[in-house]
């Protein structure tokens, strides 16, 4: 039996907090055992190994992000919805950098199918319905938005924009304006 008070959920949440503090790549079962001042072996009744722990943190992060996205998108369309979802990703990454990194973890097919990843794709596609895109352009646009959101957030978190003006919020707003304009005038396939 596991140590009283420890559960898989508690360990995963503690692992997510640890990821936010020290970086997702530093999260291991050993580091988590030190956090709880227990022997590593006592955690193996809750998680298989460090990879299992990191996968569970990734699933938690995807779920948290999807929940935030659902709330932010309720009743919104067009540019308002685009901005709301973009801000969810950016705000989450700033508040939870380790969890955000975890959400980028490549999952095995079974874990991916059980994850909230599908909700993320559905939210993005829901936004794109307001722009009247059909396939395959809708898939291209989903990939574009994901690339821009993740690219900008990653560069910003890494300090890539801290050396120059204008303020990163101004740039973020301009990027979202540009994405909205692009989506409204998506170029036809030749």
Structure notes:
- The longest helix is centred in the first third of the chain and has 24 residues, at 50-73.
- The chain is an all-alpha fold and 190 residues long.
- α4 packs parallel to α8 (137-157).
- It has nine helices and no strands.
Attribute tags:
190 residues; mainly alpha; 9 helices; elongated
Structural class: mainly alpha
Secondary-structure element sequence?
Answer: HHHHHHHHH
What proportion strand? Answer: under 5%
Terminal CA distance reads 64 Å
Which oligomeric state applies?
single chain
| Helical content (DSSP H or I, runs of 4+) | 55-70%
Task: Work out the number of β strands.
Answer: 0
Overall pLDDT metric: 93
**CA-based gyration radius:** 19 Å
Helix count? 9
Low-confidence stretches: none
The main β sheet shows up as:
none
Shape: elongated
């Amino acid at each position: 039996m596991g140590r009283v008070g420890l559960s898989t959920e508690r360990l995963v949440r503690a692992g997510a907090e640890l990821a936010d503090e020290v970086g997702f790549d530093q999260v291991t079962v050993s580091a988590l055992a030190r956090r709880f001042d227990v022997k590593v072996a006592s955690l193996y009744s809750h998680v298989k190994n460090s990879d299992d722990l990191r996968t569970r943190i990734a699933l938690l992060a995807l779920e948290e992000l999807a929940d935030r996205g659902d709330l932010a998108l309720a009743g919104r369309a067009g540019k308002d919805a685009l901005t709301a979802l973009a801000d969810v990703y950016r705000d989450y990454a700033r508040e939870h950098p380790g969890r955000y990194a975890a959400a980028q973890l490549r999952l095995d097919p079974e874990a991916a199918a059980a994850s909230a990843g599908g909700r993320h794709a559905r939210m993005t596609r829901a936004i794109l319905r307001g722009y009247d895109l059909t396939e395959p352009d809708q898939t291209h646009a989903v990939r574009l938005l994901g690339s821009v959101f993740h690219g900008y957030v990653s560069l910003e978190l890494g300090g890539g924009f801290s050396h120059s003006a204008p303020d990163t919020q101004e740039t973020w707003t301009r990027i979202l304006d540009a994405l909205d304009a692009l989506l409204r005038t998506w170029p036809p396939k030749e």
